[in-house]
Amino acid sequence: MYFVRYVKMFYREALNLAIDEMMEIDESVVILGEDVGFYGGNYKVTEGLYAKYGEKRVIDTPIAENSIVGIAIGMALGGLRPIAEIMTANFAMLAMDQIVNNMAKLRYMSGGKIVLPMVVRMPQGVVKQLASQHSQSLESLFAGIPGLRVFTASDCITAYHGLKTAIKLDDPVVFLEHTLLYFEKFDLPKDSFYNPFKARVLKEGKDLTIFSYLKMVHDVLKVVDKIESTLNVSVEVIDVGPLNPLDLETLTNSVKKTKRFVIVEENPKHGGFGAQIVSSILEECFYNLDAPPLRIAGEDVPIPYNRKLELLSIPTPEKIYLKIVEWGKQNGL
């Protein structure tokens, strides 16, 4: 009998392990950002790396996001494989000139003569009472920039394997994490394999597909059994994973099977990434559907500081359950 060996670890530890292993086998891999060195990172993702690899490879920078990404671009042009940490996606707005006009475009504008093997990794999402300037989900901005690959990490498997793949690529990658997941524990099978260019079927079903990514995946999984028992249906749950390129094959294959689908996303509904998922699936599967799609998303408001209002502004497990059950009963489930 074959047994898969599991290790349970914090999400932040899986990211740390990925960086450590890549730095150990490839001296061109360096990491830079605010407090990534001696302090070990704001969320302890780089803990221990400064002592192991020294200040020339684990580089503390000033609080200057545009410079952090710009320096990383220069490092990549010079033959290194930099990992630029932005303390939070909210601060990445200060680096958008470098991300949009250089990081995303230099390889294309050089006709492929320039390779840009670099990763900009950052957490995003609603935390707990950090207010509107520190609680944003900005995946639509990054996924809409041609020339960038955009990965999301929802657990230790996607964090570990996804980040290692991102570091190995010769293309620039924006690697999105979620702040509330750093101190959550997940299984990381020692013999696991994950292709970060593919979506993952976390639970198979035949009557309804629920798509999600990052923290919302776990909120869906908390209520999926309750949804199934209430509606008497079999639900398929898929972690979307890569946002650009989107794994449309896995998504559409599921919808062709179940005939119904729901998107659960934390970002505001207007202009949210779920709209891209819906439109992409409808182009391929319109005549396969037995019901209109449902999007469960954040409200179109800046995230409030007040905890009660904060929870009202985003999907929660209870909201996900109630909205899917209501939609299901209206659409023949």
From TrEMBL:
EC number, UniProt record: 1.2.4.1
GO molecular function, one term: pyruvate dehydrogenase (acetyl-transferring) activity
Keywords for the protein's UniProt record, in alphabetical order: Oxidoreductase, Pyruvate, Thiamine pyrophosphate
Entry-linked CDD domains: TPP_PYR_E1-PDHc-beta_like
Pfam family, one: Transket_pyr
Keyword Oxidoreductase: yes
Top EC class, one word: oxidoreductase
Start and end residues of each Transketolase-like pyrimidine-binding domain: 9-184
Co-factor requirement: thiamine diphosphate
Oxidoreductase listed as a keyword: yes
Name under which the protein is recorded: Pyruvate dehydrogenase e1 component suBunit beta, (Pdhe1-b)
Xref: SUPFAM superfamilies: Thiamin diphosphate-binding fold (THDP-binding) (SSF52518), TK C-terminal domain-like (SSF52922)
